[in-house]
Fold this sequence. Notes:
With 116 residues, the protein is mostly helical. It has four helices and no strands. The chain has helices at residues 2-17, 28-42, 72-81, 96-109. Helix 2 packs across helix 4 (96-109) and helix 3 (72-81) runs antiparallel to helix 4. The longest helix is centred in the N-terminal third of the chain and has 16 residues, at 2-17.
Amino acid sequence: MLRFVCAAAAALVLSACAAQPEATSAPAETLASDGRAIAEAQCAGCHAIGEYGASPVPEAPVFRTILTRYRADVLEQEMIEGIEVSHRMPDFQFNPQGADALIAYLRSIQQVPPQQ
């Protein structure tokens, strides 16, 4: 009987030590959807944030081609630290999760800009 109790206790301890499954990150669609919500709230006043249309402020690039001009990793870091661009733009900083979501949204709508 003592053997059975010890074996059961050992099994319980080992099962508690077993690797827990890693928390999965948000699905790409959810992350991109969160990024679109951020873009609508923070960026749409100047940028065309959707899949068509011109930006309300002509100097502000449309979101659907922005990753053809900027590397995503650099842009994400600048969004976190504070971005400086050649056109007028309000000061802002995103938290890392917001920047990640916004980059996911940008990736989801990218188009090659027309040749000029």
